Amino acid sequence: MQTEDLAKIGFGVVVVLAIIGGIVTVGGPATGRMEKRDQARLSDIRALQNYVTCVARARDKTLPDSLDGNNECRRELDRTDPFDGTPYVYRKLSETSYELCANFELPDALSTWQRPQLDPETGCLQYEFIP
Fold this sequence. Notes:
The chain is of the alpha+beta class. The chain has one domain (about 30-130). The chain has helices at about 5-25, 30-60, 105-110; strands at about 90, 95-100, 120, 125-130. Strand 1 and strand 2 form a beta hairpin. Helix 1 packs parallel to helix 2. The longest helix is centred in the first third of the chain and has 31 residues, at about 30-60. It is elongated, with a radius of gyration of 23 Å. Keywords: Membrane, Transmembrane, Transmembrane helix.
C-alpha cells in the first residue's frame, strides 16, 4: 500500500469515528423524538398553568381544587398525554401553590434549564399563584 492510500483510510476512520461520537453525544434520532415529545408535554403543562391562573383569578384569587368542572375559563385543553394517554396531574399544595405533572421521557434534560424547576423523579413542576 502506498502512503496516499493509508492517508485516505486514516481519514475515513477519523470521519466514521467523528460521526459515531456525534451520535453518542447527542443521542441520535430516537433521543430527538423523545425530546420533541417532551416539548409537547411541556407545552401542554404551560397551557394548564395558564388555565389554573385564569380560574384562580375568576374565583376571587382562589386556586381550584381540581381541573374538572371549571367553566370560568373555557378553553380546550389537553389534559392527557397525547403520546401515552396518561392524564396530566394537578395537585393543589396550598392556597397559593400547586404542581402539574407529566410522564417526561428525558426529565433530566428538561430539568437543567426549565423554570420553575422540574423534579426529574416525579415529572412535576411547582407553581406559585400570586393573587
